[in-house]
Amino acid sequence: MTLRIYGNRxxxxxxxxxxxxxxxxxxxxxxxxxxxxxNGCRWLDLCAxxxxxxxxxxxxxxxxxxxxxxxxxxxxxxxxNWQQVAxxxxxxxxxxxxxxxxxxxxxxxxxxxxxxxxxYASGLYQPVLEAIAHYQILAPTGxxxxxHSPNNWTVEPIPTLEICRQKVYGNTALTFFRVMSAEC
Length: 184
What we know:
By secondary structure, the protein is α/β, with parallel strands linked by helices. The chain has helices spanning about 25-35, 50-60, 70-85, 100, 125-135; strands at about 1-5, 10, 40-45, 65-70, 90-95, 110-115, 140-150, 160-170, 170-180.
């Protein structure tokens, strides 16, 4: 199966719903919301799946894309997709393994944009948000988009992160976080 991203580029995906690629209209909405802030940014793609969000960021000029993906088959697809779209001056890296276990390896690094799209029933939302805050992975002026089901989704407040906007696109919802006192 293939999907198309910015510039009519085709990406590979795995068959079935194992990686559930972000819907085209949701991808487009995220990049419209963040337009003007992708070029030159540092992008973190959590639960990367097919890597479509990181690939889109590379196509739109992100300077560096880092992803985390647990499933080995998906990781191979992510690397192929990013290699296909990255320009020579752009850097990308895929960390393989559990997202909660890999986040401490990013301590000391900050990202301008973070996209987090785990399996909706995974129970990863709270621990990942807490790790992002604890390790200060989101840049002070950065923003994080969390994809989730619009039904029955809640997280406990994180002292240093705040919700700055929420959007619903059919069966997909996005909640955007920022570091407290930063502007969306």
